[in-house]
Design a protein that fits this description.
The chain is an alpha/beta fold. Helices cover 35% and strands 12% of the residues. Strands 6-5-4-7-8-9-10 form a seven-stranded parallel beta sheet, with helices on both faces. A three-stranded parallel beta sheet has the order 1-2-3.
Length: 304
């Protein structure tokens, strides 16, 4: 509520804020069934056809961002529900990617915890980024941002995706890997920057992880299902790769008993990629605008 000026709509809407995670359809229906307008935070809350059937009062559905794979836009449109999106900032996820890479390389969290708990002074020896090889699965907007920082650190940067061309790689200043296998086998850090689709789901499986060096790290700030989660757990437990930095998971919130919460070579954050003050200010500014436009009969940023 502090991220935008709600003045333009304050006298026309009553706002309820749900901060807790509602993990069942029944709980969502109970919370939302009387609301004409519902605002979703990206892909944290699925709104499928079965749920939409149980929300007869719904007329406007707003999602942060202009894409939300967890919303059945077609089903909403069939029911006369307007679905609209918002703008956003493109830098938060790439910045978090580097927070994870740097922490993995220099054991920042581990050393900070040891210092605070009075443990051994300096327990680890860091990994140099200068001269190391960074492999990027995906070289779109976010991948390119990550690539440029890697180059600034003096890293050799490789990139690969199914559609990546040599021209695009040259434009960003990186080397096009000949194959996914080559990138995985030759990189010291592998970072994923792909949209989740049927083609990218499970793109990194057990055989792919087996190609990575025992000293290499995997970083995923895109979507959990791009990596075979059980295969990654096995590789980490066996020490077949040095570690992983993860911001996304198959199930979110991550179950309390999930191995990623306790494996010593996992650095995990709770899907923080786009969670920045600047990003939220854009989200909620546009949300207020969307509500105002809908109430005046001229919806904006309509999806579908």
């Amino acid at each position: 509520m502090e991220m935008a000026d709600w003045g333009p709509v304050r006298d026309r809407v009553e706002v309820d804020v749900f901060r807790e995670h509602l993990d069942s359809e029944d709980a969502l229906v109970e919370a939302l069934r009387e609301h004409e307008i519902v605002v979703l935070m990206r892909e944290r809350t699925p709104l499928r056809r079965s749920l939409l059937d149980r929300l007869p009062a719904l007329r406007l559905l707003i999602t942060t961002g202009m894409r939300n794979a967890s919303v059945d836009v077609a089903a909403a449109t069939e029911r006369g529900v307007v679905v609209s999106g918002t703008g956003g900032l493109a830098t938060g996820t790439s910045e978090l990617t580097w927070a994870l890479i740097l922490d993995l390389a220099r054991s920042v969290t581990k050393e900070n915890t040891g210092l605070r708990e009075g443990g051994l002074w300096q327990r680890t020896v860091g990994v140099d980024l200068a001269g190391a090889r960074l492999g990027l699965l995906g070289l779109g907007r976010l991948g390119a941002q990550v690539a440029r920082v890697g180059l600034a650190f003096g890293m050799e940067v490789l990139a690969w995706s199914q559609n990546l061309t040599g021209e695009r790689a040259a434009e960003v200043g990186v080397k096009l890997a000949g194959s996914k296998a080559e990138l995985l086998a030759e990189s010291d850090f592998v970072s994923i920057h792909l949209v989740l689709s049927e083609r990218s789901r499970g793109l990194v499986g057990a055989a792919d992880l087996a190609l990575m060096r025992p000293s290499a790290y995997l970083v995923n700030t895109s979507r959990g299902p791009i990596v075979d989660e059980s295969a990654l757990v096995d590789a980490l437990r066996a020490g077949r790769i040095a570690g992983a930095g993860l911001d996304v998971f198959d199930v979110e919130p991550l179950p309390a008993d999930h191995p990623f919460r306790t494996l010593p070579n996992v650095l995990a954050t709770p899907h923080l990629g786009y969670v920045t003050q600047g990003g939220y200010r854009v989200f909620y500014r546009d949300i207020v605008q969307n509500i105002d436009a809908y109430l005046t009969g001229a919806p904006v940023r309509v999806l579908g």
